[in-house]
Amino acid sequence: LTATTVGVFGVGAIGGSIALRARSNGARVIGSDAEPAALEQALQVGAIDAAVSERQLSAGCDVLVIAAHLEPTLREIERLAAEDSPRPVLIIDVASVKVPVVRAARGLRNFVPTHPLAGTERHGVAAARADLFLERRWAYVPAVDDELNSRAQTFIASMGARPLATSAEEHDRAVALTSHLPQIVAACYAKMLRANDGNLESFYGPVARELVRISGMGFALWREVLQANAGNIEPKLRELANELRPAADALARDIDALAPLFAEKGTES
Amino acid sequence: LTATTVGVFGVGAIGGSIALRARSNGARVIGSDAEPAALEQALQVGAIDAAVSERQLSAGCDVLVIAAHLEPTLREIERLAAEDSPRPVLIIDVASVKVPVVRAARGLRNFVPTHPLAGTERHGVAAARADLFLERRWAYVPAVDDELNSRAQTFIASMGARPLATSAEEHDRAVALTSHLPQIVAACYAKMLRANDGNLESFYGPVARELVRISGMGFALWREVLQANAGNIEPKLRELANELRPAADALARDIDALAPLFAEKGTES
Model's pTM, two decimal places? Predict the structure, then answer.
């Protein structure tokens, strides 16, 4: 799979990182993007060998990576499914929700839904890094065809990442808790900090710093993901709010009621 | 101040890190600890030159660092205040709340309340590192005596940290938001994760990882701090819970109601 042509649809931070890594592996990389300026920049920074149109991309590559936001990902999947027979022997997406992707991709051959569990709060190919996926997990939803799964695993490993088989439903429930819920908490927390006077930044601990960092990721990036996975996120958000209130009561009335929240006892010195 | 004897009361992760750094600066370091085993370990890892009693400590050093939890810190301050005239030309504490310390220390000469904004989730002198404070802020509550403040600034700078002048009230309000609130959120969040089946850890993003990491710090370490600063933390915890509920409503009914939570718009690609 390394001595192939890799096509990248969407040359942002993720698509650009995949492109950089594929090139450093020896693959020829062609790219396509709805924004001509982004494509031009990807050429300039050496993430891709050639800029092509959407149709030239799928017709001209062996492995096709759809590295766009959710909505353009679903549209590209539908466009590809309407083609007679795709040239790529492997087509993957990298969207951060998987149930809508699996639903849209029913008619698409050679497709494996995936999600690299790595990212950056920065946008565009300027934020791309060949080592973005190094030692990170990269989830994929296995197909019926074992040969196809093997190709997906090989491609993921070629990115330096560790393949993680999952169902679309398990994936979406898990990231609701481990990624989408923290993102909303970070947004609410950062709003509180903004409303506060004074030199708070000097007092940031590591968690405050991380929450503020991801809160800067922007609604445009998150809107579709949060909407697509709202059914999993909403109950967890209410559950967390319902945990915070008794914790506030404990602070006001009985500090030791907080003890069961803490997993370990720690030591005294 | 570097060619002095530094006394460290409490040789845990913070006190041990101060001791290691002071020794690497050329100071002689003596240590005292309520737990003989901790003191023995501090000798073994080379954090201190000599292990002494509480009374020998204050009588035998030029700079005294009280690096204990809040309650033993307050007790040591009261013990020192009852002494006739302390030998140390500078006495500091490192407790993470400052209002109770300022209150307890009214009768104590040469004392400057401080708080290094650095730490580790690990306990004991084995977790000590000479570079723990490097480039980190180190808050202090200025005294009336400018000469004393200058000594505190010099000592903080000798630790590799950046001195940050603050009032005790401003400090405690700020860390309620930037440190104590995130700690309780982390505890509530980690409880939710523990209650969940399945292989969640593979799906951790950077924030989930950080929240789980600090949630392991243990109640023993946090109990006194959370109690002492409860008046500042409790309203902020309720405020956060009150932000999460409309966010959950937005997820269920109108995703665009989330937009104002996000500070920046981000870009589309």
Answer: 0.88
- Contact A268/B202, CB-based, under 8 Å? no
Q: Name the token pair of A242.
A: 């319902």
Which chain B residues have a beta carbon less than 8 Å from that of A9?
none
Residues of A in contact with B205 (CB under 8 A): 117, 119, 175, 178-179, 182
A248 to B237: CB separation less than 8 angstroms, yes or no: yes
Neighboring chain B residues of A247 at a CB cutoff of 8 Å: 184, 187-188, 237
Tokens 């997906």 correspond to A152
Interface touch B223/A258, C-beta < 8 Å: yes
If you search the block for the tokens 């109690």, which residue do you land on?
Answer: B227
- Can you give the pLDDT of all 269 residues of chain A as single tens digits? 555 999 999 999 999 999 999 999 999 999 999 999 999 999 999 999 999 999 999 999 999 999 999 999 999 999 999 987 778 999 999 999 999 999 999 989 999 999 999 877 778 999 999 999 999 999 999 999 999 999 999 999 999 999 999 999 999 999 999 999 999 999 999 999 999 877 899 999 888 988 998 888 778 878 999 999 999 999 999 999 999 999 999 999 999 999 988 865 443 33
Q: Which long-range contacts (CB under 8 A, 24 or more apart) does A167-172 make?
A: A167/A141, A168/A98, A168/A99, A168/A101, A168/A102, A168/A113, A168/A141, A169/A99, A170/B198, A171/A97, A171/A98, A171/A115, A171/A139, A171/A141, A171/B203, A172/A97, A172/A98, A172/A99, A172/A229, A172/A232
Q: Taking a contact as any Cβ pair under 8 Å apart, which residues of chain A between 65 and 84 contact chain B?
A: 68-69
- B72: tokens are 């033993």
Angle at the Cα of B151 (from B148 to B153), degrees rounded to 5?
Answer: 110
